[in-house]
Amino acid sequence: xxxxxxxxNPALPEIERDxxxxxxxxxxxxxxxxxxxxxxTMGALHAGHASLAARARAECDDVAVSIFVNPTQFAPHExxxxxxxxxxxxxxxxxxxxxxxxxxxxxxAMYPPGAATRVVVQGPADRFEGASRPGHFDGVxxxxxxxxxxxxxxxxYFGAKDWQQTVVVxxxxxxxGLPIGIIVCPTVREPDxxxxxxxxxxxxxxxxxxxxxLSAGLAQAGRLWSEGTGVPAIEAALRQSxxxxxVACDYAAVVDPESLEPLADASGPAIALVAGRLGSxxxxxxRELPRR
Length: 292
Prior knowledge:
The chain is α/β, with parallel strands linked by helices. It folds into two domains: 14-185, 3-Layer(aba) Sandwich (Rossmann fold), CATH 3.40.50; 198-289, 2-Layer Sandwich (Pantoate--beta-alanine Ligase, Chain: A,domain 2), CATH 3.30.1300.10. It contains ten helices and nine strands. The protein has helices at 19-31, 47-59, 87-96, 107-110, 129-132, 136-150, 163-176, 205-210, 212-226, 231-244; strands at 14-16, 36-41, 62-67, 101-103, 155-159, 181-185, 248-255, 270-278, 281-289. The strands form two sheets. The chain has a six-stranded parallel beta sheet with strand order 1-4-3-2-5-6, sandwiched between helices. Strands 7-8-9 form a three-stranded antiparallel beta sheet, with helices on one face. Strand 8 (270-278) and strand 9 form a beta hairpin. Helix 6 packs across helix 7 and helix 9 (212-226) runs antiparallel to helix 10 (231-244). 38% of the residues are buried.
């Protein structure tokens, strides 16, 4: 890609690896009256992450983004070791969005030797991803709590693709009285509808074509919902969409968007959740369903 010589390159973010120094920088900015936004990520950034940084930059004076592949949210058989780590490329993308700081700690900085404390979450963490990946949300909640301590921003920005994660984080923030706002931003999609995800890079060309089954099934669920179709029939249609594309279904459900429990009111609002496997790659997606 060429750059116009009259157009300056965007400044790269400042990289900080020490939690205490990161906290000092955020505290100094806020003491000076600056609103700070925070985007927690595991790196391997794409346009979905860029949209979160752009939203934070539009609403805040300064933006910090964490890049930390959190070992405690991966099970032993999952992809922690092969999860892509692309810090230099990530910083370039974040510089283009006007991000001021990248917090990229080492594992020992987030989990000091002998660390024995974990955040244990229940309620909305128990089903779906929580059932499929035992211990996953305890790892998520623990690292997010630690990140909020290291980056004490006024607001944190999360993508709606990981809907259950946003519900769990909001519940943790409420239950622990953490002084940070949680802002959930729309899912960014590929032209064919597939939700952007760092794990899409694992898909073979043939799997990539079949992966559209998730978003196509959710689009059909939206149509059926608007027509007044019952929840069991919508869930069955979701499963059939995955099966038709040879995608193994972990779950397909229409539930309350806040509790993630079965709907008490069939008129909604609701959230349709789906998870499927293509080879060794596991993808999730969702669609909000308005009151009908």
